[in-house]
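Deliverable D4.2, example record:
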Amino acid sequence: MPDADLTRSETGDKAVQARFDAREVPRNRYRLPADYRTFAIAVCLVRMQPEATVQLLHTRPGSDGENKIERTIVGRARVCVGDAREVSFDAIRLRFYLIDALYRWIVAARGVDTLIGDEPMNPR
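Output generated by the structure prediction step:
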């Protein structure tokens, strides 16, 4: 997602939230309970910290920068983790869920079905 961009004003927009819910709520019934809980936390974190999540997308996995951004996201959106004072997480799993939620929020913000175009990814 090289052109990924998402702002708090977008994730706070009622129309964007309605599009997000219309697409994602029906899908949640197919999620296992642990997956649903983690996804719901990630959705909330991205809603509260979309700009930082976009930064995370462009940060090298496993880097100190990744760890700092993930801690910032969680720290600034503690309401998403029940206002817990201390939160531990697996950085790889958190990154996966955050980027997945970011994609879904961007789709809702743009009002499209997908960010994948009709053109082949590797044209000859």
